[in-house]
C-alpha cells in the first residue's frame, strides 16, 4: 500500500479581479489547475520567474488565502473544508518562513516572545517554564545562543534574523514548513549556512519543506524534487538534479541557460529572445509557445498537459521526449525573480 503524501494539491486555481470605474472587471489567473504532491520528509522545490504564481501557491498552502477552485489536502485533511477553530489548531503542523528577515519579525518584541508566538495556537498552552525551555532549545538548534531570547531583532544580522524566523516556524514541531524565498535576501556565505541548517533540520527532525525560490542553483543544492512553474501551471517536475541537468521542457532550459555560470563568464551571451506580450483572451494552446524555439503548429491549437515522460519525470510539452528536440534551442534571456 502506497503511503499517502503529506501535502496533496489538487487542481488548485486562484483568480484575482481588478475593478475599474469606467471598465469591466479584469480577471487574472495566478494559479491554473495546479496539482502536485509532497512526500513526508522530503524537500520539494518550486522555481520560476517573477509572476509565475510561486508566492500565491505559498499563501494557499498556508491557508492565508482561499482558492477559486481546487483543494489543499494536508495530512489527510482538506484545509478549506475545516471549521475555523480546527484550522487554527491545524496550523501548529504547518508553518512558514518568509522572504524578508527584516520585515517578518516584530521589532518591538524580544526574540523569546517572537519565537514563542506560535505556541499559542496549541490546544493546550504550555506553562511559562515549558515555553522558556522550548525557546532556549529551539534557538540552540538553529545555531543561536539561548541568551539571545532577551534581545530584540535589530541587534542581529540578516542571517541571524532568518535563523530566528526558522526557530519560530519550528517551535510547534510542524510536519511541513513553507519557505518562500527564505534565503534570497541573504549574502552568499549566509545563504550556505541557512541551507545547511535546513538540511540538518530535515535529517534530525524529519521536517518536510516546500522550498520556493527563483535561484535554480539553490534549489538544485537543497531539493529532492522540483516543480517548474510558468504562468500559474507546472510545466515540469522530477528529481531536482535531473531536471536541471537534462530539462525536458523548453522553459526549464531557458531558466537554466539564464543562470549565471562561471564557464560563461566574460563570453557574449546568445541572441536574446524577446518576451512575448500575453493576450489574456488567448487561452488556447501552449502559453509558452511565443517564446519557445521548438514550437510547432500543434502548440497553438492544443494546450499540453503534464504527462509522464520518463520514470519520475513529467513535462507539459508536446515535444518533450523527442530525440534532440531541446538541442535545437539557443541560449535565451529570461527574467528571474
**Helix residue percentage:** 25-40%
Number of strands: 12
Question: What is the count of DSSP helices, taking H or I runs of 4+ residues?
Answer: 10
**N-end to C-end Cα span:** 40 Å
Looking at the overall shape, the CATH architecture of the largest domain is: 3-Layer(aba) Sandwich
Order of helices and strands: EEEHEEHEHHHEHEHEEHHHEE
CATH topology call of the largest domain: Rossmann fold
**What is the 3D shape?**
globular
CATH class placement of the largest domain:
Alpha Beta
Going across the biggest sheet, name each strand in turn: 6-7-8-3-9-10-12-11
Class of secondary structure makeup = alpha/beta
| Amount of beta strand | 15-25%
- Count of individual domains: 2
- Low-pLDDT stretches are 274-281, 331-337
For the biggest sheet, the summary is: 8 strands, mixed
Computed over alpha carbons, the radius of gyration is 21 Å
CATH superfamily of the largest domain: P-loop containing nucleotide triphosphate hydrolases
